[in-house]
Amino acid sequence: MRILRKKGSLIVQRLALLAIFFLLWLLAARNMPAFVLPGPEKTFQALLALWRNNTLWQDIGVTFSRVFSGFLLATIVGTLAGLALGASRRLAQFFEPLLAVFNTVSSAIWAIFAIIWFGISSATTVFVVFMTAMPLILTNVWQGAQTVERQYVELARSVRMSRLQTLTKIYLPTILPYFFSGARLAFGFGWRVSLVAETLGASDGIGYRLRQAGDLVQTDQVFAWTLLLVSLMLLLEGGLLKPLERHLFRWKSPTQE
């Protein structure tokens, strides 16, 4: 019952916050021109127009495929590199300055380099997502690998466990929470920078449509795309990422009586 009451209270709070947001939006829109700040009604009309557009799902699918491709590459490279740095202090000391460079360079700079190297193509967005997400995953996995108890590693060696067994039975359970935390953050950043990359170097996708609407001063469509994008991210976060995190780390939660 306590869990149900907590969930009910949380839903009420979220609905109240949403109502306040739309009320403030409505009041602000009444005092501004529509091309500066369209109201909720005009934005929802533009959203319905997008829904009827034949290219909507194609643009969403293209953007998602670019984000997931870059994120998948970042996950593979970042995880392997993070494990390698966590397992070797010398290797970590040698490559640490390079990691600082990756974390310092802005995504907009990577987007400019990507346009120079790959032109107007999907590779531009994939590269920017990769260069944004990879350092975050690498850093978190590296930190997780450093927390592995050395006595367990020595014990694994003494019983002649293979490197793969040591990785899966000792390193993996320790780094998994760090990895998931970094992956969620990296995916969120990757999704946002993909729009920047598509705005600068793509001929389709959500970012391209946002730029197109902005160039034509179709502010209602810009708001409609933004609202659609936020809804998709909230759906992905609440419908996939959070349930997956609760399932993977349910052993960390106290048992409810």
TrEMBL record:
One Gene Ontology biological process: transmembrane transport
PROSITE patterns, per the entry: ABC_TM1
InterPro entries hit by this protein: MetI-like (IPR000515), MetI-like_sf (IPR035906)
Transmembrane segments: 62-86, 98-120, 126-142, 170-191, 222-241
Positions of the ABC transmembrane type-1 domain: 60-240
Gene3D superfamilies linked: MetI-like
GO cellular component, one term: plasma membrane
Membrane-topology descriptor: Multi-pass membrane protein
Subcellular location: Cell inner membrane; Cell membrane
Main location group: membrane
Keyword Cell membrane among UniProt keywords: yes
Key words of the record: Cell inner membrane, Cell membrane, Membrane, Transmembrane, Transmembrane helix, Transport
Family designation: Belongs to the binding-protein-dependent transport system permease family.
PANTHER family (alphabetical): ABC TRANSPORTER PERMEASE PROTEIN MJ0413-RELATED, ALKANE SULFONATE ABC TRANSPORTER-RELATED, MEMBRANE SUBUNIT
Protein name, as recorded: Nitrate ABC transporter permease
